[in-house]
Amino acid sequence: MIIILSPNVSKKNAEFKQLMDYLEKLPNIQTRVHEIQGAQQHLTEIYLLGETAKLSKEDIEEFAGVEKIVRISQEYRVLGRHEDDDRASSFTYNGVRFGQDNLNVFAGLCAVDNAKNVEQMLKILKENNQQCTRMGAYKPRTNPYSFQGHGKSCLPYVFELAGKYDIKVVAMEITHENHIKEITEALAQTGNPTGVMLQIGTRNTQNFELLKSAGKQDRFPVLLKRGFGITLEESLNAAEYLASEGNSNVIFALRGMKTNMGDPHRNIVDFAHVPVVKRLTRMPVCIDPSHSVGSRAQTPDGLLDVMHVTAQGVIAGANMVLVDFHPNPKEALVDGPQALLMKELPYFLEDVQIAHDAYKKRVQLATAFHAKNG
Ligand code: PEP
Ligand code: MN
Questions:
Q1: Cα–Cα distance between 165 and 135 in angstroms, integer?
Q2: Based on the domain organization, do 229 and 347 belong to the same domain?
Q3: How many domains does the chain have?
């Protein structure tokens, strides 16, 4: 059960204290308080855990300061969608809105290699009115002898350059809780010129201690990749770990699944699950066409497979696209073969827009249909 308090009623108010006194006396019930700072207002939610089935919704509704009560199913308590649940499915970070009803593109380097390539990437993003990017500093690699990323040494120039080109959010994978501290320190050292979205990769989807660390802080939103060899339910529960620790600014990313069926793609593209995740949870959904497809394979119609699958995800309502680009893919230290080229950025963005416009038209069509047919 979730008790949603009226906007701006918080832990400090007498109404809150009165209600908590009552709740704490209930047998076999534990409480957890979540505070959500929105752009306009402060929301406080009280989660009741334990034997909630016998509680009377009406009794609790009578308390001053209670706006609404939502009975939750067992699944994904914080991030899930429940009956009569109209909690927000969006959040704003560093001036950029992330929601189940909009779309942000994060084009950038899979791995930071040098400042020159970072600058070239960020410059072209700015020229194309982009405010987000991806930049990998900590790379989880299959082979221990492969390049592992420059780690914290590259953070100052990545953040300074992001600030120089007005990039508001940099998606950056972390593989250890120390990386959160290193990112925080590098941002402070450079005067907080940009924002960071912590990315938890497919190899760490069920690294529960890492999830708890990223969930305990609420400065940075988290992009959680679906585990490539586990069920969707397991991956959504992993997302819930972040929220259960207090951070519900979470975006869920589909990035293809491992199968033993091999080619043609690096992973089987799972973007048919975009609407499924939106139906089950309130998280914005990201697609990663680069790590799904894994190459620059092209069809006879002249379109790259990466662009085909991007369009498939976007036309199904994806809210974020995480995509690898590189100024000189032959020089890239990680995943060069799947990178798109600088000259392809405006073309890629226009192709994404076509698919996004088609999605919006489909929503209009569905709305008109339901208005007429109930
Ligand atoms: C990445 O985005 O750089 C990455 C390693 O992705 P994944 O965790 O999906 O393999
Ligand atoms: Mn990669």
A1: 14
A2: yes
A3: 2
Same domain, 188 and 244: yes
Residue 55's domain spans which residues?
2-71
Q: Does some domain include residue 223?
A: yes
Is 181 in the same domain as 32? Answer: no
CA 141–ligand 2 middle distance (angstroms): 9
β-bridge mates for residue 97, sequence order:
92
Residue 30 lies in a domain: yes
Protein residues with C-beta less than 5 angstroms from the ion ligand 2? 110, 335
Q: Which atom of ligand 1 is nearest to the CA of 139?
A: 5
For residue 201, being part of any structural domain is answered with: yes
- 189 confidence band (pLDDT: 50, 70, 90): very high
User: Is the separation of the CB atoms in 61 and 69 below 8 Å?
Assistant: yes
- Which atom number of ligand 1 is nearest to the Cα of residue 201? 8
The reply to whether 77 falls in a domain is no
For residue range 35-78, what is the model confidence (pLDDT) as tens digits?
887 777 888 999 998 888 889 889 999 999 999 999 887 789 99
Asked if 334 and 139 touch (Cβ cutoff 8 Å), the reply is yes
Residue 371, burial from CB neighbour count under 10 angstroms (0-12, 13-18, 19+): exposed
- How many CB atoms are closer than 10 A to CB 153? 12
Q: Please, are residues 55 and 65 in contact by the beta-carbon 8 Å criterion?
A: no
Q: Tell me the CA distances in angstroms from 16 to 23, 57, 58, 64, 270, one per residue in order.
A: 10, 17, 17, 8, 44
